[in-house]
Amino acid sequence: MSNGASPQFDVVIIGAGVSGNLIAKQLGLAGKKVLILEAGLPVPDSREEYMNNFYLALAKTPESPYPALAGRTGSQANPAGELPDPATLPTPRATVLGLGGKPNVSYLIQAQATGQNAAPDPKTGEVRGLQFSSTYERNGGGTSWHWLGTSLRELENDIQLYTKYGHGVDWPLTYSELQELWARAEKEIGVAASVTQQEPLEVVGLEYPQGYQYPMGPIPTSVVDQTISQGVSGLQVPGTLPDTPGGSDPTMYDVFVTPTPAGRNSEPYDDRRVCAGNTNCIPICPIQAKWDPTVTLGKALDTGNVTVSYQSVAYNVAVTADGKTVTGIEYYEWSRDAQGNLQKVSKSVTGKIYVLACHAIENAKLLLLSNNWNGIANHSQQVGRNLMDHPLYLTWALAPQPVWGYRGPLATAGIESLRDGEFRKYRASFRMEIGNEGWNFATGDPYTTARDFITGTNDSGLNTGGPNGTPQRLGGTALALKLNNLFTRQFRIACMFDQSPLQENCVTLDVDRETGKPNNTDGLGIPRPKVEYGFDPYTMEGFRMAAYVCSQVYQQMGAQEFTKNRVGGTGDFTYRGVSYHYYGAGHVVGTHRMGDDPDHSVVDASQRSHDISNMWVVGSGSFPTVCTANPTLTLMALAFKSADSIIAALNY
Amino acid sequence: MTTNPSTPPPSESVVQDFANLSAALTGFQSSFIRPFLDPVNLSGTFYQFAVSQVGQTMMDALMSAFDALSKQTPPLSAQQIADTLLEVSSATPSPQAQLCQSIISMWYLGSWYPPPFQSGGFQQVISSQAYTKSLAWNLAQAHPMGFSAFTFGYWSQPPGSLDTFGVNTGNGGGQ
Fold first, then answer.
1. Which of residues 386-415 of A touch B (CB under 8 A)?
2. Does this complex have an ipTM over 0.90?
3. Please, which pLDDT band fits residue A77 given cuts at 50, 70 and 90?
4. Does B161 reach chain A within 8 Å, measured CB to CB?
5. Where in chain B are the domains?
6. Confidence (pLDDT) at B174
7. Domain residue spans of chain A
8. Which of A59, A121, B113, B117 allows an S-S link to B95, with CB 3.0 to 4.6 Å?
9. Which of A375, A337, A338 is CA-nearest to residue A356?
10. Neighboring chain B residues of A61 at a CB cutoff of 8 Å
């Protein structure tokens, strides 16, 4: 491969998602020749095909519009809608429908549903053996086809958690540098927000440079937001609850609602339409009013300097004998023959610089696969470790009066006022996202409640109007009015935690090192990622607080809470005698953490490998901590910094 | 869609009868169930689909029962007809009442939910249009997720009244 010939490209990027596309665009504009290797299928000419997949899917999960699991519903050939075996697919990925399953449905090799809640280890206080519940996509455009659009900035204390509160680790960046990078990302995405509306968040340290303006005005808040905002007026909560391990923060914190900066258009921007409130940001915006990575990919291609090779799955980053220089990328180009059988051809490509941009879990997998499964760029031993998410705790309620959910973007406001305080010494901080989709996320409504009243069941918890609280069966106008009364009062709040980075939460390879053979592979024969996950008491104490704050919010506004914590599923644990269920937020971070110290981090502040000077490893995997904002904006901000440093290195 | 292609399309009068039955069962206005101009023709689609699932004999029996109830004197209200067909006061609804539940579900949710008596049936989305026209969302005074005709900012104001979303609100209607 390194046969003395000059490299074929200036830069080879693996993965056509947020980071890869942004870096490709910046490099293309600078006149650099770029190849993107994308594992999955091309970006379709029109999103109609994906929309149709979504409409026909019985379970409208985040993955439902996208290839391989697209549009899964019962059929004559497959009445139960059984999932394909990841061992037969060229680019399998974690999916909501596969969670908790065995390797024949779950791409990630990890804990399976046991029927019992996980409980803390008496010695460490940690709960182990939990399901990592976030999922992702492997196709052109990547996972952010179905990002929500939330474009909050991190707080100053998010990135200096250790210095300020003695927990977790610091980021190797200053807040002022991030402010400049966020501004560039906000322009690229087209973030709709008002600095004036964000000003109350000065109480948690959110500040903008003097005179800063977002690219366009804010998205209006929903009636749900407005109702909660009025309802929580005057509400305060303490920093910690009684008996919090480690100490207490008795300060009373104000609870208030602010509009959420959003990557969706409030005015025409970049030749894309304004948001029409299809209430479908996840899994797919029907009109691309929400920015997604294919927008930036288009701009990258427009430079004339960027080429994409689809259906190209990297399986080895080839390095020199000393492990300090990448010499090429080895990949399989896959296709299906006329009979549908998977075919693969092994290829390789060279560049001056290489960028791994294929998702926090896939980046770690590729680094660990390389050098004959001995790994590269890993003298810190941190590759694959510190896997984090925003574990998501969902609560839901009926308002006393209609709030008319199921309308507008999925979320337009949140409670951000509890994201920072002294309590971060003792428990995980969290943000609270207000949902505009009724109980769709919470219970699968309108389906669940409608079926309850049509058939006389009570899966929703709402059908208790018969004699002695038994379920009713209704029809005609009586059914319509009953459902109208319920649907229009439904709303929910999702709490997302700044989970602790833990060494033992990790991605490894599912291989047998004694025999030298893989255990579970994908359809190309590449070993699959194995994941271990759990929470420490700091994180779980955050859940306890979140449950308390939600109940206070509902009580203050006269709403009736219906939160039902499942027991014995895949995302359930018991803490201090109380059962909690969590979801994944898709915010996968930490697996190639950035830092100044090469002994304790994988990449530096520009996401360049400490060990390999011509390789950058980019994306949310570089986040040292998951912080309190949804990650995409910051992920793109970091990609701008990487692009700058790559251009500087090429021009050196 | 799994409709048996050998089944001839139902006649105009059968489709209209089915639309009238559907209006009574769902509590929606007949003009919403079957508009004057109806290129989508979900009434015809759903009728045929139900026949393919439970058989012509059973559908004929249901349509006859509806016809008889419609012709009673003094006339029954739509609510009374729905309650009778659904056997709402019975703890063990008959197969015909179970079929009525599946018909409501097609209109509300765009999917076929096999009634308990059906063997070999499975849950499925009937068609893209069955989803994008499904009526449960109207009961939220909203729109199917991913398919909206509203415009920017509508969500910051209360919606139109329930009547405008097609519900036959009868005497007790309103928001």
1. 402, 404-409, 412
2. yes
3. confident
4. no
5. 12-172
6. 35
7. 222-256+390-500+539-565
8. B117
9. A375
10. none
